[in-house]
Every structure is written in C-alpha cells, then in structure tokens.
Design a protein that fits this description.
Strands 3-4-5-6-2-1-7 form a seven-stranded mixed sheet. It has a six-stranded mixed sheet with strand order 9-10-8-11-12-13, with helices on both faces. By secondary structure, it is an alpha/beta fold. It is 46% helix and 17% strand.
Length: 462
Amino acid sequence: MYPADTIVAPATASGLGAVAIVRLSGPRACAILDAIFRPAHPGEFAPRMMRLGDVIDPATGARIDRALAFVMPQPASLTGEDVAEIQCHGGQFIVRRIVAIAVAAGARVADPGEFTRRAFLNGRIDLAEAEAVADLVAARSDSALANALSQLTGALSARVAEMRAQVIAIRAHLEVEIDFSDEDIRLPSRREVAAEIERLLADVALLHDSFARGLLIREGVRATIIGKPNAGKSSLLNLLLGADRAIVTAIAGTTRDVIEDSVQLGPYALVLNDTAGVRESTDDVERIGIERTLRSARDADLLIAMFDSSRPLESSDLDVIRLTSNRPGLAILNKRDLPAAISAGDLRRHGLTLPILPFSAINVEEAATLRAELTRAIAALVDPSASTTNDRIAISRERHRDALAMALEALKNAHSSALSLMPPEIVAVDIMAAASALGAITGEVSGEDILDAIFRDFCIGK
C-alpha cells in the first residue's frame, strides 16, 4: 500500500497562466483546506461546490491570493481519498506559496504520479487506465488523443478482461476434470479444449500485433527526408512546418546534421527529419552528417525521397532510390517550376517504386497537395483496414506487449499439451500462467517494482 498521509502538488504546468490548480489528497485534505482557505461567506463546504475566498498563511494571517476552492469526499473522488483543490491565479510564486503553506499545515509534496497511483490502489482506475492518463497528457495528435481516451475509458481493459474470462473458463473445465473425473459428468474432450485455446490464441495475437500501430499513433510517425544536396529537402521541411526551421541556400552541403521537428497531418503526428545530402564527400564534417543521414533513414518509419527534376540523374540519386527499396513513403520530383531534365518515368526505369509527386517546394499553394499525399502514406502505414471494434484497439506500451507475449507463449504450450492428451493438471498450469500475464496488464497481478516503473515517469500533480 502507501503511507496514509496527505499529499499536495500543483496540478497545472509550471509557467505563467491565468489559472493554476493546487491539489490535496489524503485523510487531512479537507482539514488542511480549512486551515489555509477562508471562504468569502460563512458556511461549510458542500461536496463539489466551488467557493470563493482567500488563501491565508495560518502562521502570519497574511492573505496569499483570492481563489476558488472545492472538496471531493472519499470514495467518489479522483483518488478514492478526500480531495481538495484550490484554483488560484497562475503566477508561479503564488503556486509555490500555497504549496508551502499546505506543507506547513501537514501535507507532503507528492511524488511523480502519486495521485494517479493512489487512484489505482484505491480501485478508482485499473493499471491500463492509469497508464492512459500519462498517454493523454503526452498526446500530440488527434489519433494519439483518441487512442489514449479509448484506453482511459476502459476499452483496452474490457478487451483484456474478456480474454482473461475465457482463459479462466478453460481453467474451470480442466478443474472439473481434475476434481470429478470419476463422476458421470459430460466433460469437454481434449480436442474441444484445444479448439477453445486456439480461438483465444487468435484474439490475443491480434491485440499483441497491434503494438506497432499503437506505437506509431502514440509516438508519431518518424519520416526522414533524403535526397542529393540542393534537391530541396530543407525547403520542403520549412514548407511543411510553415516556418524557416532549416537554412536554405544554393550552396551544396548547407545542412550538416539531422534537423528534427514535428507537424500534425490529419489525425496523425509526423516527426520530420531533414538530413544532409546523400553523396560522396571528403569533408570530415559533411561525411559525419551523411552517416547520420543513412542512420536516420534506416530508423525511419517513412521515407520522403527528394529528386531535382531540373538536373540529370546522378549516382547520388540512384543511391537514394536504393535506400527506398521495400520501404513505405513518398517520392517528390521537385522544382517542376524549372525546365525538366528528368521525369517520373526516368525514376521508374531506375527502380523507384514509391508514389511520385511532381512538386515545387517554393510554391506555397502546393503545400495542401503535399500534406494530403503524406497523410495518405501515413494512414496506409498506421491504420491498415480494421473491420471490427476489437481491431481498432491498439496497445502502445512495451509492458502490455510483453505481457501479451507471455500469455501467447503460455497458451501455445497449453494448446500443445491439450492436443498431446497430457493430464489436465499440466494443461492447467499453462492456462493459469496465461491468466496471470493478462491480469498484469490491468494490475490484477502486479508488484511494487512494476508500479514504481510505471509511475516514475508521470509528472508531479498527476
């Protein structure tokens, strides 16, 4: 469990703002609020009813701020404990002073994620929903937001609970066979048990395999812009971002290192990497930049290959084509505002298989077309056709993937044992291992070390 004390922390980000929130949770939350807050009009706090008043330093009687406050009594609160919140003006000095007088009145500054951890330990949310809180805070695209909200409202937990119930039902069949094998009871055959396990294996594998898609949704799709020097890579980056993020000159080799920034395209986050031009170089600094280009291209989820249509194909263009082999992405035939020296057909004849977009990076009006093409490329990568609600659920955390992998391994062993007509006790061992692995996702089976690892990356106040 955890110490039965009262914690306090700002629940809003640091920095200047119109309003900030200071949150208290624990057995003395309401008493501490009474000690540091004087309502403008006499009377007790009604649950969830905002009251106007002054924050007071009990030691000196000095007024700190004019603010709003309310209480949420346990158990129907954020954490399952008594919770009190003060909504004050958003100056950081004010926030620090309120936290300090709350500590002086008997609270302790909360550890990262401690409010959410208490909510989990008090049964207000399960572990998957707790992790979704962090994902919701960190979301940087509509798709990431939707996925986090789906998990926060229990979609993943419900799916896991459904699979775990099926596992336990199989275990019950085996227990009947173990305990009542001498009775005149109709028992499922080993092949019937194996068929049940096989159906369950398909469901668990589907959720396990959603990890790659879920991670792209959560972290964003990483795209590397590659091409020979002066093909227009930096101009493309600036056009997509709507800002002069990269230096653009007519001098080859201006970009020496990987420049990273992100933009939202449709519902997706695209993390863009502008890179040094692909070419042979004797300059040590430029060569390091080219090595980083190749590494960035290898690590990218998506490649944006730039070709200069105003110049004949060179060996560096052919190197770019080779880098795109069997990779998702988009080819851009840039500088179509200039007389053409090569065409899309020339790129095709040299083995380019990516979709090709004729383009001019200096024409702002073409940005909409580029964004639409990139959005289609991202959608094909992130959101392959999913026909059912269950298919839409995507895990995005390594912990979930690993737990599902353990469940798959246990179910495969149980399936093999059932087909081999092994004793029911042997099959049941693997079945229960699968149930434990699935339970770890929602926190039905979890240790302090797991909880520490999950909540240490939360921000203070959550």
